[in-house]
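User: I'm new to structure prediction. If I give you an amino acid sequence, what do you actually give back? Let's try with this one:
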Amino acid sequence: MKLIDCPRDAMQGWPTLIPTSQKIAYLNALLQVGFDTLDFGSFVSPKAIPQLADTAEVLNGLAVDASATKLLAIVANVRGAETAAQYPQIRYIGFPLSVSETFQQRNTNKSIAQALDDVARMQELCARTGQEQVVYLSMGFGNPYNDPWSPEILGEFTQKLDALDVRIVALSDTVGASIPETIAPPFRELTAAFPHIEFGAHLHTTPATWREKVQAAYAAGCRRFDGALGGYGGCPMAADHLTGNMPTERLIEFALGVGETLPLDLAALGKAQELNEALFASH
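Assistant: Good question. You get back a string of structure tokens that encode the predicted 3D arrangement of the chain. For your 283 residues, that looks like this:
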């Protein structure tokens, strides 16, 4: 089971700016924990996400060589991907491809068709740089806009991504709409139909519903999970009231409970949690 911690998602919608030095200290603490991947920042318009305008500066302060954890940066277009591609420390370039036409326009000011063209161009870029693209199917468990959604639609999107040789696809619960009945069928069908693709779950949740969501994805074959320590954050482009991220500590609890072996340094995790609490409590 792979754990991806997403401090980028925790910070991006935070109402007050977090100093760059504090971000660097927190991310360096997370790099010592042993997560598979750290979703650390994004190369997007600073007007859209001012909290992450310092991503390049933050990256330069990270002790990447002292950690086995891989770095992932989110981008919203080819220009952002070209910026991320300049940094060999970044292993993964993540792109949100929405299955909701409304949200694709809202999130990236493009149609789904235009976004798919971007995916193709970014895939070619990654082939040249040796990086790897992670495509997030946002609104992956339904949407509040009455746009069409079904496991079959997710399958159609995945078929297109498969044709582009995308090998990591994460179903993303952008607004906390997921319930076990909408989580299990897509993972069950997709993992069977595309065994060569690694499927991930980027779930948002309330404190009372986290376990049933993780259980549904895990039982249906998902072994890649995104979380954020403390459950902070959410997508500022999705709603006025953010639904929190899946708490990483809950994912750890679940994984250990089902017998998964996690290469985590629990002492380092404790230090990262202390910094997490101080970081968000003070801002």
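You can read the tokens as a compact description of the fold. Here is one thing that stands out. The domain at 2-281 is CATH 3.20.20.70 (TIM Barrel).
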